[in-house]
Amino acid sequence: MTSSAFDVAILGAGPVGRVLALMLARVAPDPARIALLAGSAPVPATPAAAVPAADPRVLAMNHGSRVLLESLHAWPERSADIRNIHVSQRGRLGRTLIQNTDFGVPQLGSVVAYSGLHAKLDECVTACGVTVLSGPPALIGRQDAEGVRIQQGDAALLCQVAVQSDGAGAADVRRDYDQHAVLTTAHATLPRRGWAWERFTSEGPLALLPHPQTPDAYSVVWCSAPDRAAELAALDNAAFSRALSEAFGERLGRLSSQAPRHVFPLALAARRAQVHGRVAAIGNAAQTLHPVAGQGLNLGLRDAARLAQTLAGWLARPASNPGAALAEFAQARHVDRFITAGLTDLMPRVFSTGLAPVEHACGLALLGMDLASPLRAPLAQHLLQGFRA
Fold this sequence. Notes:
By secondary structure, the protein is an alpha+beta fold.
């Protein structure tokens, strides 16, 4: 059995864990004392996620996340800009349009391939000087005044601060949406570059995002009841394309999908507290959200950025107690987590009640936001960069 000591150990080498490692490497006197445990994710988000290069997902990154990744030189080579976000409700009055010109930014966000982002982050982590430890999933053991003990296979680690960044969040707060998401890619006969679409249906949200690899293609996230999702996934390409075009409408012409379809269940799972002693949880280890509005990874990156900021001063004296820095981190992240989780929890439920008065009220709310920029500004600002304390 081997034994090592580190200032910070990050359990999980997904995008959030890698971004935290890069940020800590910039402020740590000795980056080698930051350990990134690359084999730590116990359950991939999708079956394909076990092999990052083969992961079919695309990720919606808001403006704030792009600025962060560019500052770390970790922005992937290929991306598709989002300059306009169109929000509507099928069969009901009302829509709203959020545009980059409202905020004087080049884009509201961008879409990147998971595989491309993972490869770029891997390249940056390799060059930054942190210690990368590959192996079986790591387990956090007891913690005391000396630090936190971690077991990864035959290796025993002692660290002053442990950060869980991968895997499902603890179920202190949990909601099963009784929805599954169907992921696929579709081509449009009338594509509109720079546009993303969030369409609320009685089954659940339907999102089309510009694909980073093909100009006329869109990444589709179609949320519906589990039986309906299974039915959609089992359709042949022609039948699925017809169903998708009917649900989305004619704004992009005819939609045609020839790509494989992947299905996964949707639920909210969150920890009430992000810090327990010397252990902090960020990203999916702290909260998993409904994919509406694409907020999950963006929230996790804000977790990582704030934790790196609050640990920077402590890393100059890592023998001191990190409790004050971790408490500051938890306090700073409370409002953003509450607002983002609440927003992504409310929207898919309120728009799919099946109650005409509620859905008409939602339509009027969308119309009001479209007509009055002060009404849509708070939502747009949150989608742009989240709440930053």
